[in-house]
Amino acid sequence: VALISGLVRRFASDGESFVAAPVTPAAYAIFRARSPLWEIFPLLPRSTGFQQREIERLAENPPAFVLIRDVAVDGREDLRYKNTHPLIYEYFRSQYDEITSAAISGVEIFVPRNLTPRS
Known about the structure:
By secondary structure, the protein is of the alpha+beta class. It has five helices and four strands, in the order αβααβααββ. Strands 1-2-4-3 form a four-stranded mixed β-sheet. Helix 3 (48-60) packs parallel to helix 5 (86-95).
């Protein structure tokens, strides 16, 4: 929660949307935020068509930041977000810049390209 709180202060303090996936859906309630995606608890694989519709939603309402927990749900490699939602994950990698965070191992944070972060 502290990590997401810092990201909200830094990148989404004016109520911008953000993505917190796959195992952090409570972040939307805690910060009274709306996800730009339909699926807020993305644990299982999704079809290409579903992912393309989600990417369209992202393009219409670009998140101020994206936080992906690189976790093998139930210890299963096939249930990592990058494996269950490969098109969306690649969209984040291609449209956003990854910033590093030493706060929590296995967390990927992406911000829009050419963004000047708020202090």
